[in-house]
């Protein structure tokens, strides 16, 4: 499995978001505490929104803790919305095209989890992807396949509905192929304004996911903590596991739910898989 982090708020240096927290994502790439694997060294990636219409992406197959270029560029990137992901492969090759986040137009996507027994389901999953989108798939991961399923089902217009339909398709294929509990996922996706995050597994035992709480409230609780003074009041983080261990700083995203993260706020809703006529006849 993997670890990931998303940030939304006032423009901040990527270095401060990635390296400075006590249990930063770079620290988690070596010493994850809540993940299945403690080490996530099968590549990494960051995606950020700046002045261009299309987000920037930097990926490498090196471990995040051992890429000097990441430290260099993170000192130069100031962004209001950052995605970062450290990878522990569930079987797909360690190559740049398999590193997250994935990009389509203005949209970024990253995932922690797996489609169980993916080689058995892969052909049917790929056949469900819109033919106009299929040529854009660069890698071999189930994570990228989920992204293009969601795009096929309308991610750019209705992210929650599209992800619910993608889940429904994978679970339908699992039933047909005799794969119990076929899906495990925490996902983040964004077009540069809002972040949608999803927590779901067919087994009902999904990997951990947390949203940060209100910065103003945390400043009252911890008036002497410098890092909270440097963050703007609109700052929000979504993380696989907390990057600071401060009581009251994190709210767990509930099982089978999604959250919409916008500057200074987030709201949570139930996530229910949707089976469509296309899925039942594919």
From TrEMBL:
It comes from the Bacteria. SUPFAM superfamilies: N-terminal nucleophile aminohydrolases (Ntn hydrolases). PANTHER family: GLUTAMINE AMIDOTRANSFERASE DUG3-RELATED (PTHR43187). Its EC number is 3.5.1.118. Gene3D superfamilies: Glutamine Phosphoribosylpyrophosphate, subunit 1, domain 1. It comes from Actinomadura coerulea. Residues 2-282 form the Glutamine amidotransferase type-2 domain. InterPro entries: EgtC-like (IPR026869), Gamma-glu_amide_hydrolase (IPR052373), GATase_2_dom (IPR017932), Ntn_hydrolases_N (IPR029055). The keyword Transferase applies. This is Glutamine amidotransferase. Pfam families: GATase_4. GO terms for molecular function: hydrolase activity; transferase activity. Keywords: Glutamine amidotransferase, Hydrolase, Transferase. PROSITE patterns: GATASE_TYPE_2.
């Amino acid at each position: 499995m993997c670890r990931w982090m998303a940030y939304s708020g006032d423009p901040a240096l990527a270095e401060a978001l990635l390296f400075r927290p006590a249990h930063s994502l770079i620290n988690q790439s070596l010493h994850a505490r809540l993940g299945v694997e403690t080490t996530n060294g099968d590549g990494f990636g960051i995606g950020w929104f700046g002045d261009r219409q299309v987000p920037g992406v930097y990926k490498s197959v090196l471990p995040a803790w051992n890429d000097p270029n990441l430290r260099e560029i993170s000192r130069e990137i100031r962004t209001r919305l950052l995605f970062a992901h450290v990878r522990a492969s569930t079987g797909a090759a360690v190559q740049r095209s398999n590193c997250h986040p994935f990009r389509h137009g203005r949209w970024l996507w990253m995932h922690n989890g797996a489609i169980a027994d993916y080689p058995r389901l892969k052909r049917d999953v790929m056949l469900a992807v819109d033919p106009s989108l299929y040529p854009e798939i660069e890698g071999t991961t189930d994570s990228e396949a989920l992204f293009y399923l969601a795009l096929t089902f309308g991610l750019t217009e209705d992210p929650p509905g599209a992800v619910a339909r993608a889940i429904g398709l994978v679970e339908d294929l699992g039933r047909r192929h005799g794969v119990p509990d076929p899906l495990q996922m925490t996902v983040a996706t964004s077009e540069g304004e809002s972040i949608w995050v999803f927590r779901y597994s067919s087994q009902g035992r999904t990997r951990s996911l947390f949203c940060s709480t209100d910065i103003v409230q945390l400043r009252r609780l911890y008036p002497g903590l410098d890092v909270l003074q440097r963050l703007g009041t609109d700052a929000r983080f979504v993380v696989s596991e907390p990057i600071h261990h401060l009581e009251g700083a994190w709210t767990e995203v509930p099982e089978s739910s999604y959250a919409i993260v916008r500057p200074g706020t987030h709201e949570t809703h139930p996530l229910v898989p949707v089976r469509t006529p296309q899925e039942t006849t594919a």
